[in-house]
Amino acid sequence: MKIFIDTAKLDEIKEACSWGIVDGVTTNPSLIKKAVDALRERGENIDISSYIEEICKTVGKGHPVSLEVISLTAERMFDEAITLYEKFNPIAENVVIKIPINTYTPGCSHTNYEGLKTIKKLSEKGIPVNCTLIMTPEQALLAAKAGAKYASPFAGRVDDYIRKNLGIKFKKGDYFNFELMEEIRYQMLEEEIEEYVEDEEGIGYIYQQEEVARRAELGKDNGISSGVDLVAKVARIYSTYGIKTEIIASSIRNARQVREVAEVGAHIATIPFSVIEEMLGHPKTEEGINLFTQDVVPEYRKIFEEK
Predict the structure, then answer these.
(1) Which candidate, 146, 138, 140, places its Cα nearest to that of 122?
(2) Which of 41, 116, 165, 248 has the greatest count of CB atoms below 10 A from its CB?
(3) Count of CB atoms within 10 A of residue 154's CB?
(4) For residue 199, is pLDDT > 80?
(5) pTM reported for the whole predicted model
(6) Does 125 qualify as catalytic in the annotation?
């Protein structure tokens, strides 16, 4: 699985690139502005365009950098995408345009289809698109059909949505134990069904009971039990039909989630710097290093001290 770093901080990008593990970068306008503002506060004279150029050069050719449009209609998103691509892609030939799957909100004047229209037009011009804000396998399928090179299911946000609906308190980096949720759902469903079985009710009657149906869907978002499950279902659909669109598991919250999206077939995970650091740690590794340094005998050490 490829690793994209999800940041706009040049020092994080440079550091992670020096480890040899970065295959690309994803970012957004607010992160870029925040990073530029921090540099300006330190007295550096830099504008946003120059900063983006530096990101593209740092990552280098063959390592995609996703840049985001800011409008909500197909016509304006397309124009903005062309501007971004023509301005920044010549630097290292690595620019990818981020387009949301759906920009519609209640009360707005445009349609649900602005994202798809834009993806289609850009793909026809050979401009690679990273389709973002994907929360369902259905959206991922449509993004691929429209021509997106990358599809980004937001695993962490789906976990957040499910937990909020269940009234579960959590912090942003907390792991969502969906296996525990499955067990809770099963136990509650079994208890509810037993009541009807004891009354010798038929399967058809039990199936139609609202409480049985509610418990069967407890902790799910239209059949999706977690962000990892979302990624798994998208991967299964793409594999079944030979779809070439690459899956970028996005909105990653912790190291365990990285492992799990890798296990279910994500082509790429875009990961914050702090989570990449978390991936490196384990108490037994630290213990092993302590033992290792204690085991170095003086005679062996002299090998490295000789000139």
Answers:
(1) 146
(2) 248
(3) 21
(4) no
(5) 0.94
(6) no
